[in-house]
Amino acid sequence: MQKKKFGTRQLTVMAMMTAIAFVVTLICHYVMPPIVEQPPLKLDLKDSIVVMAGFMLGPLPALCITVVVSVIEMLTISSTGPIGLLMNVISTCAFACVASFVYKKVHNKNGAVIALIIGVVAMVVAMLLWNYIATPMYTGAPRAVVAKMLPTVFLPFNAIKGGINMAVTLLIYKPLSLALKKSNLLPSGAAAPAGGKRKLSVGIYILGIVLLVSCVLFALALAKVI
Hints:
The chain starts with a helix and ends with a helix. It has seven helices and no strands. By secondary structure, the chain is mostly helical.
């Protein structure tokens, strides 16, 4: 009975996080201007929602949420069709699923930071490869031109995107998970040790704020340069 009850709660959280991720995608699509005009590259904060779901529930739910949100995005607001769908799934999974897997193995605050860093690196590497493969297919740009853009456009853009999603996760994950636990949608974990808990939490929030501000400034600089 307990297992079945937790399964119902898990599905509820997955549905809620899927809805939030799509709403965030809509806001980013219509509100945020592209950092790069050609090809159009916009920041998308849905990865932070997906990785938080992965931290709460595991890599497989993060994968499911990624696919569902990406399909809905393709059918509603995206103009890049199946190629854009594939790129969305690869980008978000490289960040969220990898980070969720690492966090599952190292389940503490330091582990969360390490997991997010590894997720950002995985996403940047994956998107360098897939931008080289897929960008010519939906933009018509010669592959040689795309290759020249990898270090000057795609690398900094994806690093900024990953950094902002990491920062948002550091700032929001703790209060969101606590709210879900109080709502009985997530099981309460074991009590954390008292020593250094507050200091570590403050440090994570400071890291999140500094990272967020730095990435926004880099994004503004990149937009002006390109």
